[in-house]
Design brief:
alpha+beta, 2 domains, eleven-stranded mixed sheet, about 40% helix
Amino acid sequence: MWILSKAYVPEHIVSLMTTISNGEAFLSEGYLYYVGDAWGILVGYPLDFEFSPETMSVVFKDVTSRYPGHSWSIIASHLPAEILSSSVEKQSDVYYTLSFEDFDNKKTLRRIAEKATSRLMIEVTRAMTPEHEAITKEFIEREDPGNLIREFYHAMPDYVLRSETTLVLNARDFNGFLSAFYILDLAAKDFSTYVVGCHSKDRYVPHASDLLFFEMVNMARESGKGYVNLGLGVSPGIRRFKEKWGGKPTIPYEFCRYQSGITGVHTMIDKMLTRL
């Protein structure tokens, strides 16, 4: 698929976004956007040319005029002032990416992850079970991440079931109990995408997350990808974990919501944008 051959941010992965949001994907002048019953998202990362504020403003006017009454989420490396001036809920972050060269330089961390195999087994599946749901519930109660992230995690079982490019990496102790899991999407041609991760405190095994990270990167490499997109920084703790493995902030991210005759609409797509 042409879009996947040009993708460089997770929001370019059509199967990921449409499965989570139940929306439809469209293209306008090289910009991808998604539309649902009362919402839309404009991905301001052009697929085949350099970003231009002028071009994006034209596409924004065209796309939003086609769907009056919709609430729009807009993302880009740099949002034009014209869009920001009429928007609400502005946020900024940065996408982290990991090159295999930087990963290979983390020899101490790699040894730590490899030693974790003395206590853990790695399992790769294409489904989530009640065990995953139990760890997710435990994580949500422990971290209290808010309604958007909570609903995003709850959408994962359906997403994994419906996606043909998604893998679930499980870390189990030698009694078979699930200690942690990662979800990985391999749809894009050039990179793999870390979608979410979760670990248990009740079944905690030291360095389970490190072992999963290690396996995730190796799986991306074996799948012929050029690098791993680790998603947004999100929080200081998440940023530190990504950076300790060699992840680097590479693509600026700005988000805003544009209200077109509707207020107070929160959509599944916003959950994607706050997590990826």
